[in-house]
Amino acid sequence: MIETPASAPAGSTEPAPRRAPVRLPVPAGVGRFLVLTAVFVCAACGLVYELVLVAMGSYLTGGSVTNTSVVLSVMVFAMGLGSLFAKRLRTRAAAGFGAVEALLALVGGCSAMVLYGYFAWFGGSRLLLIGFSLVIGVLIGAEMPLLMTLIQRIRKQDPGGAVADLFAADYVGALVGGLAFPFLLLPLLGQLSGALVVGAVNAAVGCAMVLGLFRQDLSRRARRVLLATNALITALLIAGTTVVGPFENATRRAVYDGEVRAAVTTGARRIVLVEGGPHTDRAGRRGIGLFLDGRLWVSSLDERRYHEALVHPAMAAGPRGRVLVLGDGDGLALREVLRYPDVHAVTLVEPDSGMVELARTDPLLEDLNHRSFDDPRVRVETDDVFDWLRAWPGSGRPPYDVVVADLPGPAFSADARPYSQEFFGLAGRSLAERGRLVVHAGPPELPRAYWTVEATVRSAGLGTTPYAVDGRRFGFRTGPGCVRLSESERPAHWGFVLAARGTGPPLALAPDGPRPRAVDRADLRRAAARAEDGRVTGLPASTLMHPRYQG
Question: Which residues participate in S-methyl-5'-thioadenosine binding (predicted)?
Answer without folding.
Answer: 269, 350, 384-385, 418
